[in-house]
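Attaching the record inline, Q. Sequence:
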Amino acid sequence: MIRLARLALIVSLFAASAFGGEIPREHRDLIAIVNLSRLATSKFKLNYKYEEARAAMKIRRDLGHRYRKVTVFENGEATHANFLAALASSEADPAVRAIDVIVYLHGHPGAIGFVDTGFYGTDRLRDEILALPSPNGASPTKLRALYSDACYGASHMADWLRAGFRVASGSDGVDGNWSLDLHRFMMAWRRGKTFGAAIGKANRVWVTPIMDWIAGGNSHKETDGDVAFTIDRDLTP
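Structure, as predicted:
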């Protein structure tokens, strides 16, 4: 019996090293920041209000039961200050081991649009995130995955990674397919697909080419960083 117990322990340790550690629901937080209408012209404001409400609803519905805490900042709450405060709060919480983020804001090359600051350089935001206090080091250590639906999100990825996220995604150009790809991503992510595979699902929304043609956009999502982990398991040795 003792030999069998030792063998079981060796097997379990090998499995842990080969497949990484689990991050259960009670140890991960999701922060989403959602607003399109505040920085829109009056011509499109009603369309954007409808779409941002749908995006916030989908985030709560699709991922609400897969995280310890889901914080969604929408409408007037989608501020630069609230975003940084939420990151700092989750980073300081000893129960949290992973912080994932969804950005559903307007974007320009190198900038995203908060309701309190307007378009804000992601290089400045990167440095502010790095300056947040952390109980585990000089800068945040729990940042994990960032999904962006902002236009030109691919131009922001390097700053997200330098800020401490392990992986980031973003569109090549104007993001014209609304929250259709976000929904596809979230459904795959919640079902245990890797981040990379979930982005692949998001990129295969059949109507995207049509919507991009109408909007003159390119909603295809690029990724940078470690794409090989799932919502509840670190698959990287």
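The chain is about 40% helix and 20% strand. The CA atoms of residues 6 and 12 lie 10 Å apart.

More tomorrow.
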